[in-house]
C-alpha cells in the first residue's frame, strides 16, 4: 500500500493535536508549581493534615480539566476554613474571579488575610447557599467546589439547588472505594443519596476513577477524600468522555433532609 500523502488537512490535525498536548502539559506543570507551594495551615484541625483540596493533586488536575472543558468564568469555594484551598485557587487561576466563604467569622478573616495579595479573590463571612445563588445569578459557567460541611451545619443540598448552571465538585463524597473517605451528617452519608434529595436530581453524576493513571502522583498518605461531580444546566458529555471519571446514576429515593 502506498504511503498516505501529508495533505494540508492531515498536517493541520497533527499540529492541533501537538498544540493540545503541549497545552495540557503546561497546565500540569503550572498546577504542580502552585499546588505544593501552598502552606498546609489546616493541619492543626483537619484529619487529612490540611493543604489545598485535601492535599490531593489529582483532584487539582481534575479541576484543571473541568475548567478547560467548560471554560468556566468563575470559581466558587464554600467552607474556606483557614484558606488552604482558597489560596491555591486564587494563585492557580489569577485570570478568574475566586469567591469563597465561611459561616465562622474567624475562619473567613484568616482566609481573607491569606489571600489579601490576590486581587482576584473575595472572601466573605456568609451562608454558603447565599453566595452560590449570588454567583449563579451573575456568571454563566461557574465551577463550584462545595466543602461547607462541618459540625451540625450541612447546607449541601441548598447549595446544589441554588446552582442554575455550572459544575459542582462535592468534597468528602462517597465514591464506594475503601481508600477514599467521606463525611456523614445525622446518619446521612455525603454521597449519591444527597443528590437524590435535590429539587431536580441529576440523571447522572461522576466520580474520579480510583485506578486512573494521572500525570502526577497523589502524595496524600493519610485521609484521602472522595469527590462527586455534578453538571447542572450544562452538557454532561465532556464529563462522560473524560478518561479519569466514572459515570454513575443516583438513587431515585430522596433520603436527605434539607
Provide the descriptors you would attach to this structure in a database record:
single chain; alpha/beta; 19% strand; 258 residues
Explain this structure.
With 258 residues, the chain is an alpha/beta fold. It contains eight helices and twelve strands. It has helices spanning 8-35, 57-70, 84-92, 105-114, 128-138, 156-162, 192-196, 237-240, and strands at residues 74-78, 98-102, 121-125, 142-146, 166-171, 180-181, 184-185, 188-189, 205-208, 224-225, 227-232, 245-248. The strands form four sheets. It has a six-stranded mixed beta sheet with strand order 3-2-1-4-5-11, sandwiched between helices. A two-stranded parallel ribbon has the order 6-10. Strands 7-8 form a two-stranded antiparallel ribbon. Helix 4 links the parallel strand 2 and strand 3. It is globular. The termini are far apart.
Radius of gyration: 19 Å
Please count the helical segments. 8
* Low-confidence runs of at least 5 consecutive residues: 254-258
Could you give the distance between the termini?
Answer: 66 Å
Name the helicity range.
25-40%
Oligomer: single chain
Strand content: 15-25%
Structural class: alpha/beta
- Could you state the order of secondary-structure elements as H and E? HHEHEHEHEHEEEEHEEEHE
Describe the sheet with the most strands: 6 strands, mixed
**Strand ordering within the main sheet:** 3-2-1-4-5-11
Number of strands: 12
Mean pLDDT: 91
Q: Which word captures the global form?
A: globular
